[in-house]
Write a structure and sequence with these properties.
It contains four helices and seven strands, in the order αβββββαβααβ.
């Protein structure tokens, strides 16, 4: 007799449980950029702009996650999401912005840059609002 396969539902949390550890300057830049991009694309129903949202990029692997500071995706419906799942949307973001700092610089320049490139992100911008490097 063959044992039945048990299907378990994969959980994709919409929070990593960590508080946002941003300076006033970093969070202001992030909010301003999201606001301006949403205003710029307000008439386009197929351009989605979000920020500091968990983005899952491997179906079935909830540990494969990143949280871009700001992301812009063209060609997907504009509606509020709890997280962004690349396989459900059919594509990775077209543009990613990271508001970088001395403490995030290495990750932003190495592992995140390589990941976004592998996912097909067309443009990747780093902004150092404090001019730390």
């Amino acid at each position: 007799m063959i044992a039945p396969t048990i299907q378990t539902k994969i959980e994709y949390p919409d929070s990593d449980g960590k508080p946002m550890g941003e300076t006033d300057i970093h969070i202001s830049q992030l909010i301003d950029l999201i606001f301006m991009l949403r205003a710029f694309f307000r008439a386009d129903p197929s351009t989605y702009v979000a920020g500091n949202m968990l983005m899952y990029f491997v179906e079935g692997e909830s540990a494969e996650v990143v949280a871009p500071d700001v992301l812009v995706v063209k060609g997907v419906k504009k509606y509020p999401r709890r997280s962004y799942k690349v396989w459900e949307e059919g594509k990775a973001p077209d543009v990613v912005f990271e508001i970088t700092s001395k403490s995030t610089r290495r990750e932003d320049l190495s592992s995140k840059r390589m990941l976004y490139e592998e996912l097909g992100v067309q443009e990747y911008f780093l902004f150092d609002p404090l001019g730390e490097y």
